[in-house]
Amino acid sequence: MNLVENIKEGLKSIKANLLRTVLTALIVTLGITSLVGILTAIDGIQYSVTDSLSELGVNTFDIYSKRNRGGRSGGIQEKSQPPLKLKEAMRFIDNYDFSTSVSLNTSITGVAEVKYESKKTNPNVWINGANEEYIALEGLNIEKGRNFSIIENQYGTNVAIIGVDVKESIFDDNVDPLGKEISLLGNKYRIIGILEERGQIGGGGGPDNSVIIPILNASRLSSNRVLRYSMTVGINDPSQMEMAMGEATALMRKIRQDKLGEPNSFEIAKSESLADRLEQVTSVMRLGGFGIGFITLLGASIALMNIMLVSVTERTREVGVRKALGATPLRIRQQFIIEAIVVCLLGGIAGVILGIAIGNLISKVIGIDGFVVPWLWVIVGLVVCIVVGLISGYYPANKAAKLDPIESLRFE
Predict the structure, then answer these.
(1) Are 194 and 216 in contact (CB under 8 A)?
(2) Are 269 and 174 in contact (CB under 8 A)?
(3) 324-339 pLDDT, tens per residue?
(4) ∠ at Cα 183 (157, 88), nearest 5°?
(5) Where is the secretion signal located (predicted)?
(6) Can you tell me the distance from the alpha carbon of 207 to that of 167, in angstroms, rounded to the nearest whole number?
(7) Both 144 and 170 in a single domain?
(8) Are both 246 and 286 inside the same structural domain?
(9) CA distance 407 to 253
(10) Which of 241, 264, 287 is the last residue of a domain?
(11) Same domain membership, residue 287 and residue 316
């Protein structure tokens, strides 16, 4: 009896016990579906975000005021550094020659109240000042309207871009906010744009509950309070990040008049990219997917082993006949292992197809376009099926291979 005959006999046995085979394969299908489905959805999300980042085409670093802790180091009082000023930031933007885009922003208050006619928000709205580059470099989108123009920023015009929570608080559904005047911090501002909803874990602040006004206009609302300005520099070529940061550091030291040998009077640091954050999240999600799939496949392997043990008992006489005709223990063992692997592969193929379909459906439901086929996870899923079949089938197959041919022929 050669290997081809073993495969044929295994398929005949599966066909003879079709219902039992289908039920066993279904358990494997569920495990592979959960594994491939979750990983397909994760790959779809990651592909979409990565594609968006590649369209944006930038990596960023931040320049902001040094945090003054006021402590002592080695018995020496830490020097308190003045915050980054608006004129210093503007000088940096005007003189930084590297091929980049630079956003400038400051936070005025987080407890503002915004009014429109007789309606007003809760006193928890963030008022931020920013230039025209801020929206893009912060990964925000304008759902309706437009961004600030260069002229509006240069002259500090009373215009504003509002978040979706602010819009819903003071405008009825049938009212178009664009062009309307709102009141905040004792001044009137004309709405020119509405930010796309971003959402915030835990609710509360974020872009949705904020109003953005031109940076120069924001500086006039400080009420003699010192504002803390920060800049985000976007680099088109990530390979030039270190060079760009070096030039930015040298220029800022010159602007801030930092003496040779003294530490920087400002902070400069590479931003944690969205891709890095996404990778951290997806890694955890992948582990969860593997965990769910592993538990389901563990149940499937136990069920399969039990069914194979029953099959060995039912076919004891058949094993005796095969041994009497010259079948070796190796061939008997092969036959039962092949049956187990075939059952797992049938379930695995069905699970892969369902997993890809469900994973892409989940991606579609959460608003991600495109169809993803995770070939790596498809191959991994099928290899896992073979391993499960091998492990589950080996003990029953070994038991069948050790049966005594004489005793087996007497079995009823």
Answers:
(1) no
(2) no
(3) 777 777 777 777 788 7
(4) 40
(5) none
(6) 12
(7) yes
(8) no
(9) 92
(10) 264
(11) yes
Do 43 and 162 belong to one domain? no
184 sits in which H/E element? strand 181-184
Burial of 293 (0-12, 13-18, 19+ CB in 10 A): buried
pTM value is: 0.57
Residue 84 to residue 152: CA distance in whole angstroms: 23
The token duo for 397 is 């197959």
Query: What is the H or E stretch that residue 181 is in?
Result: strand 181-184
Calculate the alpha carbon distances from 14 to 8, 298, 335, 386, 397 in Å: 10, 21, 12, 16, 15
- Residues 299-313: tens digit of each pLDDT: 777 777 777 777 777
Q: CB within 8 A of 350, min separation 6: which ones?
A: 25, 29, 32
Domain of residue 330 covers: 3-53+276-410
3-state secondary structure 200-264: CCCCCCCHHHEEEEEHHHHHHCCCCCCCCEEEEEEECCHHHHHHHHHHHHHHHHHHHCCCCCCCC
Strands 210-214 and 159-162: antiparallel
Measured between alpha carbons, how far is 392 from 306 in angstroms, rounded to an integer?
Answer: 8
**Separation in Å, CA 400 to CA 311, 324, 411:** 10, 14, 13
E strand or H helix at 377: helix 375-401
Spell out a b/e string for 221-246, using b for 16 or more CB atoms within 10 Å of the CB, else e: beeeeebebbbbbbbeeeebeeebbe
Q: pLDDT-based confidence at 69, cuts 50/70/90?
A: low
